[in-house]
């Protein structure tokens, strides 16, 4: 068996969720659940490397989901690709 390729680094952004009216309070919990399920699935992958799941920030300081509709998503993506890669 030849050598394995270099590991691929994976991180998580919050899932963009649409819920029924009155269920908005569940969105952060559902996003976290989806993230944990995907994390658990990828944890056993032979080539994918993951950061500490508890360090992933899925909501902002006001409790709003940090998904693609969030006004600060560009800052989050910039952090993942430039700043986080140096640590």
Describe the structure.
With 87 residues, this protein is mainly alpha-helical. The chain has one domain (21-86). 32% of the residues lie in helices and 7% in strands. The longest helix is centred in the middle third of the chain and has 17 residues, at 27-43. The chain is globular.
Question: What is shown here, in short?
Answer:
The chain has 87 residues and is mainly α. The protein is 32% helix and 7% strand. It has helices at residues 27-43, 73-83, and strands spanning 8-10, 48-50.
Question: Topology of this structure?
Answer:
Elements lengths: L7 E3 L16 H17 L4 E3 L22 H11 L4
Parallel strand pairs: 1-2
Q: Proportion of β residues?
A: 5-15%
Spatial sequence of strands, sheet with the most strands: 1-2
The poorly predicted ranges are: none
Describe the largest sheet.
Answer: 2 strands, parallel
What's the oligomerization state?
A: single chain
End-to-end gap: 32 Å
Evaluate the radius of gyration: 15 Å
Jot down its keywords:
87 residues, mainly alpha, two-stranded parallel sheet, 2 strands, globular
